[in-house]
Amino acid sequence: MSIYTLNNAISEVLAQEMRRDSRVLVFGVNAAAARPELQNEFGPQRVRDTPASARVVVGTAIGAAAGGLRPVADLLALQPGAAIDVARAAHLIQHTRLPLVVLFNEQRNQDLHATFAHSTRFVVVSPGSASEFAALLRAAIRDDHPVAFCVDTSMNASPDEFRDIEQVIPLGKAAVLRKGCDVTLVSYGRSVRECLRAAAQLATNGVSADVIDLRTLRPLDEGTLLRSVHKTGRLIVVQEPNRLCGIGAEIAALVSEKAFDALTSPVARLAGNDPDESAPQFHRQRGTPLADTIHETALRLVEQAAAA
Asked: Which among 133, 162, 191 is the end of a domain?
C-alpha cells in the first residue's frame, strides 16, 4: 500500500499512461512547469506549456484528438471560471467519439459540473477521494469520448492510501461506500466525506444508511441509485454548490419519476448557499452541507415516517 497526494497521483497516472500509449500527451498553462519530471522523461513534444487561455488549450486538444492523439488538457493553473469557456466551446466537438480529457478546478458553491453536464459532448467525472481520482483518470484517458474531469485540489492536504495505483474504475458506475436499509445518502466530490461521517453518526442512533458516491455525473448510474431508493424508501441528495438547477435537482426529479412509489417521504436536498463573491473565501465556504446537517435531516425523515 502506498501513500499519494492528489497531485502526486495525477503525475503518476499520467506517466504510466504515457508509457503505455505513445498517443497520450499533456499540455496546458504551466503543465510542464508543474510536472518537470514528465517533460524530462517524455520531452517537450508530449508535455508542454501553453498560453493562459482555456479556449486555446481546449481548441488544441480537440485538434490533437481529431488527429488521432489522446490529449490531456490541463486547466488547473487557470481560474475555475475558465472551465465555463470550455463548456461553451463544446460545439466545436463534432462527434462524441473524440478521446480527450479536460482537467479543471472545482470551485466551491458554483456548479461547474452541471455546466458541463448540460453539454451532450462530455462525460463528467467528480471523484470523492484521491485514490478514486487516479483510477477514474486512468479510465478517462483510455476512453474514446471527451471527459470533463473535476479536480478538488483540497485533496492535496490529505494524502490517501492506494492499494493499487494501477486500478481502473469504469466511467458511469457509482459506488456504494456503505450499506444500510433506512435512508440513502447520495453525493459526489468532497461532500461524499460528509455523507460518510453522517452515516457513522446515524449508526449510533440505530439508523443505517446507504452511502452512494456518484463518481460520474454524466452519465448517471441510475440503476445503483434506484435500487438503493427501492430498498430504503428515503433519499437525501447532498451537493456543495447551490440548489438551483444543480445535479441534486436532476437526481431528485429522476427518483420522483422512476421510484415515486418506493418513497416513504419526500426527497431531501442539501446544498450550499448562493455564493457571495464579495465575501472572503472562508465565509463563502460556511454554507456547505456538513455531517451534522445531513445527520439531523436523516433522523427527521426516519422519525416522520415512523410517526405516520
From this structure: 162
Q: Which tens digits make up the pLDDT trace of 121-173?
A: 789 999 988 888 889 999 999 999 889 888 877 777 677 777 677 889 999 99
H or E stretch including 154?
none
Residues 118 and 240 in one domain: no
Report the distance separating Cα 51 and Cα 259, nearest Å: 48
Q: What is the pLDDT of residues 178-203, one digit of tens each?
A: 999 999 999 998 899 999 999 999 99
pLDDT digits (tens, 9 = 90+) for 203-251: 999 999 999 999 999 999 999 999 999 999 999 999 988 788 789 999 9
Mention every residue, 6+ apart, whose C-beta is less than 8 A from residue 101: 71, 72, 73, 137, 140, 141, 146, 147, 149
Q: Please state the pTM of the whole predicted model.
A: 0.89
For residue 51, cis peptide bond before it (omega within 30 degrees of 0): no
Concatenating the DSSP letter of every residue in 40-92 gives: HHH-TTTEEE--S-HHHHHHHHHHHHHTT-EEEEE-TTS-TTHHHHHHHGGGG
Element (H, E) at 150: strand 147-151
Residues 9 and 150 in one domain: yes
